[in-house]
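Narrative of activities, Objective 1.

The group set out to show that a structural description can be obtained from nothing but a protein's sequence at a throughput compatible with the screening campaign. Below is one input-output pair from the validation batch, recorded exactly as produced.
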Amino acid sequence: MRSQPEPYIVVTGANGNIGKHVVNHIRSKGARVLAVDRTIERPVRDQSRNINVEDLGQVFDVLHGADAVIHLAAIPHQRLVSAATIVQTNVMSTWNVLEAAHKLGTARVVIASSIQAISTATPRTRQFYKYLPIDEDLPLDAQDEYSLSKVLGENMADMFARHYNMSVVSLRFPWVASPELLATGPRKGDTADQISDVCYLTLADTSELCWLAATVPLEKGTHWPLFAAAADTYIDTPTLDFVRRRFPDAELRGDLSGFTSLVSSDRAEKVLGFRARDGFRATAR
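Output recorded for this entry:
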């Protein structure tokens, strides 16, 4: 019996902090990867390519023949460039990936959303939650250009999945911690104000999450927005103390003792079989 061929996966934003680790992780699984970015200095034939994901024609070119695309290319947070540039870059690049994948029949699209779609790092008004930990049933609350670009990306993913019979996963990444930052230990929590200030995922777990999102069988015509986070927080304040100070009216669901995360990864575990392995504390390992 012939074995199934390993998937061919395109990764956009492959030269970024997350992208480099995702590419290496997927290659370690034996899959073929085309790493694409604007800033790859020495592209290698059939392995990497310089492209601009805001150009639809270039996206068509690199997605031809792909089984899946992991779209990480984006302006990664606020205050790097103008608000208009963030919205234009993040929204149009996501549209281009979805449109090209639809027309080419790419079986799976994974897009990088963000925890900031529900917990903006720079909110204009105070954020409240009916219950904690947060999960995918809570309403989104974009309050600046970056979080808006992620909400719009999820809206587009939902449209393409439902009306074009595609399979799309939107990964709502929290802060992604490198091994070097993990070694420094938890941060002071006195100034933490948002859920996005206290929750995180390691690079290793993020890479595995992307791999599963690109390869786990899912029905066509489905869009899965998914949270995923380490089991603990990255601040030195116990979770219940943080909640009492910041979200005293929220209903508490489950055990939030110690430094338990305020992001539920239950749906990511159910849909993808993902559960974070690494963290600042032994309880998160």
